[in-house]
Amino acid sequence: MADYRKMWGNLGMDLETHDQLCEVLPQAFEDVFLSQKNRPEAMDYYNFVVAEIHGVRPAELIKHQENGGKVFGTFCVYVPDEIVFAADAIATGLCGGSQFWVPEGEKVLPTSTCPLIKASVGARLDKTCPFFRIADMYVGETTCDGKKKAWEILGEDVPMHIMDLPQMKRRKDIKAWAEEITEFKDVVEKFTENKVTADKLSAAIKLINDKRRALARLYECRKNECLPISGRDALIISQIAFYDDPARFTQMTSKLCDELEERIKNNISVVPAGTKRIMLTGTPLAIPNWKIHNIVETSGAAVVCEEMCTGTRYFENLVDESQTTLEGQIEALSERYMGINCACFTPNHGRIDDIICLAKEYKVDGIIDINLKFCSLYDVEGFTVERALKDAGIPVLGIETDYTDSDAEQLRTRIGAFIEMLGM
Ligand code: BJ8
Predict the structure, then answer these.
(1) Which of 4, 31, 143, 226 is the most exposed place for a label (fewest CB within 10 A)?
(2) Angstrom distance (rounded) from CA 223 to CA 145
(3) Of 220, 224, 293, 288, nearest to 254 (Cα)?
């Protein structure tokens, strides 16, 4: 990574602790990603983004601020980035996926909080993540109890807006979410001093839809028997999608898809024919949480799909681009976002239907249902998911894990046995 110490210092980061974080990442990336054989050439871009993870994009965000722009940090795929971009601001994902930040989070949160929340709070408090330092405003949402309480802590030293997400999907809930989006628009307008017009929102809807289309095209390639990209590489792309410049991300992902489609035509696969195809479902895998993909793919199988927020839930369904009034556009946003099936909703049959449907589309041999420790939403829903999969005759393995490596060997044994069982 180039030298960004001055920039990090200006952001008030703890440089010594940050050095410790920077020491571990390159080796982990080398072991999990760069050691893979036969990777698509277009992965070079994403390698570069990770190598410069605390440098290039933060520098772009700071430049944007120097030009008078604002940056909004978000934690959930229900928050509509379109509103932020329509106000000439930038939205960036902030979810923490590293164990490095968990101990700091545990100083203010109960240990029995999910690691995603502990890491996100820890990343802010230990001053080692530039994205958390740069964001002018955080946008929380009322998805799970842990997050709701975490906003109160994070909101003590950063302006925080919280969106009240309904927990059911009746007509009145979709209307209520549209009202929340309208209120969010008003907050963003006031904070940025920029007006969100129908024209600007229309351009922002197209910008984010294009990103979704590029990701959908990438996932389409993964449905093929000839697998042109590993699950690890697809995961890192999904993770980068949360904070990269959307137009550039779309351009680079489209370029990668050209190469993947060419590979499919020429029958170039990253795994031998007959490799077992695994789909992951469950809680999101925030960067740099690569643990399960790495275990699966170094145990002789391939991950071909993720029914997760770092996966299909992030890009499926487009926002209707035909609306020309702000009211119509906000309704269209609400319809699209309320179509996401997070376990915080009840009932949540849509998610079960999605999983069964995806299993068929991606021709999966088995599913691993992952739960981040202490996420009771996905844990409880795991029962329904696993029962539905068993009824559908799809082998499933439920696992619970966190960001530590302490269970890696045990998981390797269980996942290895599951993959072996699929071959019988
Ligand atoms: S839409 S999955 S990004 S809420 S894993 S913090 S739910 S205790 S991350 Fe999520 Fe939005 Fe849902 Fe997706 Fe809470 Fe569970 Fe932790 Fe979670």
Answers:
(1) 31
(2) 36
(3) 220
What's the gap in Å between 266 CA and the centre of ligand 1? 39
- Its CATH class, for the domain covering 5-32+57-189, is alpha beta
Ligand 1 contacts CB of residue 116 (under 6 A): yes
Ligand 1 pocket residue status of 117, Cβ below 6 Å: yes
Q: Which of 315, 377, 400 to mutate to test the pocket of ligand 1 (most atoms within 8 A of CB)?
A: 377
pLDDT band, very low/low/confident/very high, at 1 (cuts 50, 70, 90): low
The helix (run of H) or strand (run of E) holding residue 92 is strand 90-93
Q: Which residue has the tokens 């589309």?
A: 361
Q: Where are the domains of the chain?
A: 5-32+57-189
From the CB of 375, is ligand 1 less than 6 Å away? Answer: yes
Please give the share of the chain, as a percent, with pLDDT higher than 70. 100
User: Using CA atoms, how far apart are residues 354 and 313, in angstroms rounded to an integer?
Assistant: 10
C-alpha to C-alpha distance for 270 and 233, rounded to whole angstroms: 11
Position 268, amino acid: I
